[in-house]
Amino acid sequence: MEQVETIGADLGGTKLAVGVVGGAPEAVWQEEVPSRGYSQEDVVNLLAQQINKAREAHPGATAAGVGVPATIDYETGLAIASNNLDIDGLPVRDLLSEKVGIPVAIDNDGNLAMLAEALYGAAKGADHALLLTLGTGIGGGIWLNGEIYRGATGAGAELGHIVVDIDGEPCPGSCPNRGCIESMASGTALGRLAREAAEKHPDSELGRRLAERGTVDAKDLDAAARGGDGVATEAIELAGHFLGQALVSLANIFQPQVIVLGGGAIAFGERLVGPARTEVERYALDPMNKTRVEIAKLGPAAGMIGAAAFGRMEAERD
Amino acid sequence: MEQVETIGADLGGTKLAVGVVGGAPEAVWQEEVPSRGYSQEDVVNLLAQQINKAREAHPGATAAGVGVPATIDYETGLAIASNNLDIDGLPVRDLLSEKVGIPVAIDNDGNLAMLAEALYGAAKGADHALLLTLGTGIGGGIWLNGEIYRGATGAGAELGHIVVDIDGEPCPGSCPNRGCIESMASGTALGRLAREAAEKHPDSELGRRLAERGTVDAKDLDAAARGGDGVATEAIELAGHFLGQALVSLANIFQPQVIVLGGGAIAFGERLVGPARTEVERYALDPMNKTRVEIAKLGPAAGMIGAAAFGRMEAERD
């Protein structure tokens, strides 16, 4: 499908990655630039500038796909609401298509990471799969009957906003709820769990790091756990337990063949994913307790690769 | 589709309803018999007996659909696990087809109620809808892109087993988890909430009923609320709040056009559904907060009508 070169853009809250993807899943050209703090107009200009740069490098690329961290209206290519970027209400697709002169398709970034993992990664060969990206927040993607599922108008698959603890912490950003899994197992939540554990156990490695530097984050948590700190390991396992309960709900709802976990927090590896997987094995109904729980294979490039695949699909559909 | 007469059977934990459906959604013949406590062999014989009775009454009915309260293996027509009936591991479809001599299709009862509501009821015209049946337990059905969605092997759509309270009550029956919505807003859970409220407020109408009779159930709760008892109303609203949080998760996941609520507990009407709907409006992400939450239209016959529609579809597919 993707022998034809296509441009993929993955717009995040802090950076924009644009690449040209040929014989997928490899990018033949790519560049990353900061995206934080851009106004609506500037973010579209930035996207256009980087897409044009990709086209100059690879003039054969005649279509583009863009992933954005926002709920999307699929028909109109409009960004509805985003936690991390000033793009709410912006008709990203049409503004961009006009500026770059080639067809541009936009979708939610979680959907596109799911597409990439289904085509080339940990969900390859599966007809039914889910993906959660554990980053600053938690994004999601749904793959059903061999296609991305987006809901009535393209805004669904917000898998980070599943309630797990009805009395839990307020969900950050634009989500009005509390106790969502995003507030309990995202990278941000792992940082909070690290601070709480460090305060509670000042004699632990994590506690010493807090005393030394006045703060600890998810990276300290990872380092302390790798160094054998039981307090750090326990904090990660707690997040894995929370995450696992969301996966139990998702397994019972979808009976997917595999649930793929991606995003920055996957640096915690099996320390985080192991307890989540155990939760599914123990607490999902039979036969959903056999759902595989796997770490994403494509790494940080998944969003860009999925965006390119999507851009090609949409261009060929028209 | 259903001008051809088809037999629909709705097997529950306490009764079996079998009907002949012609110009749906009306049954032209139907009969209900008790099903509680039957052995595996007897439950198949009971189904065969009632299907044969329907065929004698309407010899033109040459296919049947059966809904069972169990996870199902769609390819083999096997019942995997049921909370209320001794049919675990039973190849219901093949045993029955052999006994009655016409094609029989089986599916989960929640899926079939969803099918009926999508074809003729509260989800008519929707491409994306969900259904929860609030009875002894909570069953579910998923309608995506105009079709029933069943998961990888047909066992999915267990919408009652979504976790809402990670520290909640153990889920009844064969579910190994705790804090599932089934343990918080089913008919059984409403009975428990009634008892708790009555014990806490002995001076309320509900409390007086408890003192008089030593027990209160969901029916007392309904009667007391209708009589103006604020304690009873509050207990129902609490269940509606729990239920609403599960609906928020489902809205964020699926972005359905409508979520349909059916089953016996729907006798509580807007006292239960109103707070659940408000929860979705307030706590789901934009635009999922616009998901409609509606009461099922077909009443207790939905399962049988859906079973007949499914039996016809499967017979025509072969």
Largest sheet of chain A: 5 strands, mixed
Q: Give the helix/strand class of chain A.
A: alpha/beta
Strand order of the largest sheet of chain A: 3-2-1-4-7
Number of strands of chain A: 12
Strand proportion of chain A, as a percent range, falls in 15-25%
**Greatest contact between two chains:** A-B, 50 and 51 residues
Salient structural properties:
homodimer, alpha/beta, Nucleotidyltransferase, domain 5, five-stranded mixed sheet, 10 helices, 12 strands, 41% helix
Give the gist of this structure.
Chain A contains 10 helices and 12 strands. The first copy, chain A, has helices spanning 40-57, 92-100, 109-120, 182-185, 187-200, 205-213, 218-226, 230-254, 270-283, 302-317; strands at 6-11, 15-21, 27-34, 64-68, 70-73, 78-82, 104-108, 129-134, 138-144, 147-148, 258-262, 292-295. The longest helix of chain A has 25 residues, at 230-254.
Could you characterize the architecture of this molecule?
2 copies of one chain form a homodimer. By secondary structure, the first copy, chain A, is an alpha/beta fold. Chain A has 2 domains: 6-115 and 300-317, ATPase, nucleotide binding domain (Nucleotidyltransferase, domain 5), CATH 3.30.420; 126-296, ATPase, nucleotide binding domain (Nucleotidyltransferase, domain 5). In chain A, 41% of the residues lie in helices and 20% in strands. Chain A is built from 10 helices and 12 strands. Chain A has helices at 40-57, 92-100, 109-120, 182-185, 187-200, 205-213, 218-226, 230-254, 270-283, 302-317, and strands at 6-11, 15-21, 27-34, 64-68, 70-73, 78-82, 104-108, 129-134, 138-144, 147-148, 258-262, 292-295. Chain A has a 5-stranded mixed beta sheet with strand order 3-2-1-4-7. In chain A, strands 10-9-8-11-12 form a 5-stranded mixed beta sheet, with helices on both faces. In chain A, strands 5-6 form a two-stranded antiparallel ribbon. In chain A, helix 9 links the parallel strand 11 and strand 12. The radius of gyration of chain A is 20 Å and the shape is globular. Chains A and B meet through strand 9 and helix 8 of A and strand 9 and helix 8 of B.
